[in-house]
Write a structure and sequence with these properties.
mainly beta; Jelly Rolls; 13 strands; globular
């Protein structure tokens, strides 16, 4: 029996998956009263080797209130200490999810794309993830693996790991990422 794709996901072989996330944001007006400042669809951005990410809120430092509710729009997937990222991603089926390395990713020999440990990495972040659809496996560097199903949560504390989608349909994961300090 074939599983129907969620309405916000297109066929897995398309370059852009069609991820769109309605994002409603509050802020403060000039008198300090609560107001809605945004209610719009945020499109996903294709990321080679990964899938598609919708960057919903990107800040490199803590918020100060009252404010106008404008997304700081900080660059990059991984925030510095004190920064946050709120992302919803569509991840594609395949061997391992292995995006091109970024400066924030700590890789060991063979961790890069095409290497013996393709997809393994660690970042100086605490990642809170909720799987919204599909199934995903998280593998740690000692070979231990856990499979997550929709509605399940993972808290990833800066460990060396890699992801893969289990099955032949994309998975959708909501992630809240906080920049951390490594000793």
């Amino acid at each position: 029996m074939k599983t129907k794709l969620p309405s916000n996901v297109s066929k897995p072989d398309e370059k852009r998956q069609g991820l769109k996330v309605r994002t409603v944001v509050t802020g403060h007006d000039s008198k300090g009263r609560a107001v809605f400042v945004q209610d719009e669809q945020v499109d996903g951005t294709p990321i080679p080797g990964l899938g598609e990410l919708a960057f919903l809120w990107n800040a490199d430092e803590p918020a100060t209130y009252p404010n106008a509710g404008k997304n700081p729009g900080a660059p990059g997937i991984f925030p510095p200490v004190g920064g946050i990222r709120y992302i919803i991603g569509t991840y594609l089926p395949g061997k391992f999810i292995a995006p091109e390395p970024t400066p924030e990713m700590h890789l060991e020999d063979g961790d890069g794309p095409g290497g013996a440990n393709d997809g393994f990495h660690r970042t100086d972040t605490t990642d809170f993830g909720v799987l919204l659809s599909g199934n995903m496996a998280l593998e740690l560097d000692d070979g231990a693996e856990v499979v997550l199903s929709p509605g399940e949560v993972l808290i990833e504390n800066g460990t060396r790991h890699r992801w893969r989608v289990v099955g032949d349909l994309p998975a959708i994961l909501a992630s809240f990422i906080i920049g951390a300090r490594r000793r």
